[in-house]
Amino acid sequence: MLGTKLTGVVMLEMLLVLTLLASGLSAMLKIHTHNEVMWQRFTNTYCAHLKSSENTAQSRLLGKGIEVDWNNDWLRQCGIGATPGYETP
Amino acid sequence: MKTWQQGLTLMELLMAMALSSLVASAMLHSISWLVATHQQQNARITSWERELVVRQTFQHLFRRLSQGLPWSSFDCVNDPSAQADSLLGAAPSSLLSVTGSDDDSAPSRAVRGSDVITIRHFGCAGYVTEQYFVGRHSGGKGDERFGLYFRERRGEERWGYSQEIMLGLPRITVERCESVCQPARNVPGFHSAEGLRLAFHWHEDAVLPFPVSYLTLVTTAARAVSLSPGSL
């Protein structure tokens, strides 16, 4: 009788532990997703600003008759996908 | 089945221990993940902040220049600047407190081998608001040793506190735009340029989607008469 009760307690503990682990994993996933979404939003905005700013300056130089022979390839990877150096857990 | 003193079987005890280990290990992993995430976020923010600070500072400098306000700049000299040298030899990513130079009116000198920049930026009306940039050519030994420093000096006192923050730029290159934009070796004479194109070379550990970022600056049409630095 006592043994059965203890087994029940242990099973309950297992359940609690598994619940704890599941909520921990869920919280980590939420933090990760939130970070990524916010970061993506920030980089998109900043990169759009960079692109617009550089394009405007380039146009103004062209308007002054200055030969502008570069393209803005360096911004190609800006604002699309994750920034380098980040590893998904 | 063998029963423990309090009524636990050996199997139950082993299961309890396994569960405890699992919980402890999971907690440790969570903590280390949270720390890594925090560091990662910090690195991201720092990298972008540096990009923004460098960009805004040069935009500000150039705006002053295009408005006819002095952007005093100095040729490279062969004498090394001891302060710049000591700063350049410091560990990366450190925040450094420095003392002012003996002569506040003297220009900060370009370090030996610099191809680009030592800029002294005078505030208006004679009060001291200075921003120095000390750049160094990356062609020397060990690019990691070289950096760009931004000094902000505040305070009403002549010897206000100052600090320099290493921004993590191993190199800046400048193109001067007249009829075309061409690499410029010297800072002087930029007041007559129609525009500038600056390239900021970032360290490899910068969390940016580009290794080099560019800033194109155009002078405004309503350019005022340039003032000489000595007129302040």
Return the string of H and E elements of chain B: HEHEEEEEEEEE
Question: Biggest sheet of chain B, strands in spatial order?
Answer: 1-3-4-5-6-2
Query: Could you give a short account of the major beta sheet of chain B?
Result: 6 strands, antiparallel
Give the overall shape of chain B. Answer: rod-shaped
Number of strands of chain A: 0
Using the alpha-carbon principal axes, give the shape of chain A.
Answer: rod-shaped
Q: pLDDT below 50 for ≥5 consecutive residues: which ranges of chain A? A: 82-89
Largest sheet, strands/sense/barrel of chain A: none
Give the percentage of residues in beta strands of chain A. under 5%
- Portion of residues within helices of chain A: 55-70%
Secondary structural class of chain A: mainly alpha
Short précis:
The complex is a heterodimer of chains A (89) and B (232). Chain A has 89 residues and is mainly α.
Task: Note down, in words, how this protein is organized.
The complex is a heterodimer of chains A (89) and B (232). Chain A has 1 helix and no strands. With 89 residues, chain A is an all-alpha fold. Chain B is α+β, with helices and mostly antiparallel strands and 232 residues long. Chain B has one domain (43-231). Helices cover 28% and strands 21% of the residues of chain B. In chain B, the strands form 2 sheets. Chain B has a 6-stranded antiparallel β-sheet with strand order 1-3-4-5-6-2, with helices on one face. In chain B, strand 7 (171-177) and strand 8 form a beta hairpin. The longest helix of chain B has 57 residues, at 10-66. The radius of gyration of chain B is 26 Å and the shape is rod-shaped. The termini of chain B are far apart. Classes of the chains: A mainly alpha (89), B alpha+beta (232). Chain A binds chain B through residues 2-3, 6-7, 10, 13-14, 17, 20-21, 24, 28, 31-32, 35, 39, 42-43, 46-47, 50, 54, 57-58, 60-61, 64-70, 72, 74-75, 77-79, 83-86, 89, and chain B through 3, 7-9, 12, 15-16, 19, 22-23, 26, 30, 33-34, 36-37, 40-41, 43-44, 48, 52, 177-181, 194-195, 197, 205, 207-210, 212-218.
